[in-house]
Amino acid sequence: MKKVLVDCDPGVDDICALQYLINRKDVELVGITVVHGNCAASIGVQNVLKILTLNNLEKKIPVFVGTESVLVAENEAWKKMPFHGKNGLCDVTENDVEIDESLISKKGAANALVDLSSEFEGELHILAIGPLTNLALAMTLDPKCAEKWASLTIMGGTSWGQGNVTAAAEFNFFHDPEAAASVFAKMPTSVIPVIVTWETTLKNMFLGEKINFHPEQKTFKGKWLWDRCKGMGSFNEPLYSSFCICDFSAAAVMTDENVVKSSRLCQVAVECGNGLTRGAMVIDNRSQAAPHVKTHKARFALAKIIDEIDMDLVHALDGIQIGDS
């Protein structure tokens, strides 16, 4: 049984990833921490409770809410990005789920990360599918926090410089560049982050028929998910045939690395300047071609960049059908 902590900013693709992990019989969700990103953390934590309630797990999986602030400089631009709507679920409110907000832990997300890392030392797999603020704070509270992780899988950054919110930057890293930079700068050599980038998710899409995701959902849970996820522009393919679900892709890689078709080990860092490339992930590909080249170790970390995913294998994974089964 793989013990997993998900740090997320729900966000419909986060919700899809959570549903997949809930479906997996070999995954134990020991906690879910919420960060600001696709919506405010105070709203995102409600969305987490909704998907847990739909699965009758709201009293079994602890949920922690993080700070509403980025580490250094607030970026007002993200508040104008309509990708997931103001409520994180494409502003769909019909047939909603009643939740019990008293179930939200009084403990903050960063403290929860520190405590759970110690409780499950050497066993805890971290899936980070939002801005990295909570992780950065946890690694500041306990500098040895990341040394206790079994693995870290991140959805964020770019493989070849094709951004989504800007020409160069992907949303999660752009939202809090200093947090992403801090995480990479503090990563221990014993844990190599696995990074599923924006371009990788864009070219490795889910097929609706394989994940049972279509307009004709029969259960309340299936209809609830579909009504919210169909609102994303990237989901509006002809006949809803294919879906770019970034966080779902990262979750699939985390549960089974056999789905990775190609990857590379590179030194990575995040640009924190205020120019055109703010939030961009910098990859030092020289480390592959010329191992003698010295990268500035103070800012860079060795990471495994996922370039290609075998979607045939992904579509065959247990629990992959997030729609009606």
TrEMBL record:
Coiled-coil region list? none
Q: Which domain of life is it from?
A: Eukaryota
- Domain Inosine/uridine-preferring nucleoside hydrolase, by residue range, is 4-312
Q: Name one Pfam family in it.
A: IU_nuc_hydro
The UniProt GO MF terms for this protein read:
hydrolase activity, hydrolyzing N-glycosyl compounds
Family matches, as InterPro entries: Inosine/uridine_hydrolase_dom (IPR001910), IUN_hydrolase (IPR052775), Ribo_hydro-like (IPR036452)
Family in the record: Belongs to the IUNH family.
What is the protein's name according to its record?
A: Inosine/uridine-preferring nucleoside hydrolase domain-containing protein
Q: Which organism is it from?
A: Oikopleura dioica (Tunicate)
